Amino acid sequence: MNTLSIEHLRAAWAEKFAVQCKTLKRSDIVTAFGISAATASTAIAYLLRHNPGFLRYDNAAKAYAWTGRPAKLPAPEWMNLFMEASA
Asked: Which of 15, 39, 62, 67 is the most buried (most CB within 10 A)?
């Protein structure tokens, strides 16, 4: 069985969230996982490292905007249920 790190799972969730909501804020990850802002920043950095160009930072909105690029990070099937619950 392939095991994904918690950092990967958070980044995969953030990727799905950005596609669904068209934007992503660090506070979205903090709220979803109950983690610190610094840890949420690590998840965003992981996402940007593994899917460059997926998000762009919008200074006016103080949020990341989805660029329309496809999601690339593999995620387990149960994450779809988690996404529905947090929408």
From this structure: 15
Domain locations along the chain: 6-86
The CATH code of the domain at 6-86 is 1.10.10.10
- Residue 36 CA, distance from chain mean position: 15
Sheet arrangement for strand 63-66? 23-24, 63-66, 55-58
Can you tell me the distance from the alpha carbon of 21 to that of 83, in angstroms, rounded to the nearest whole number? 11
- Using the predicted structure, report yes or no on whether residue 48 has a pLDDT greater than 50: yes
CA distances from 37 to 33, 42, 47, 74, 86 (A): 11, 9, 15, 24, 18
28, 13 Cβ separation under 8 angstroms? no
Beta bridge partners of 43: none
Single-letter amino acid code for the residue at 73 = L
**Total-model pTM:** 0.88
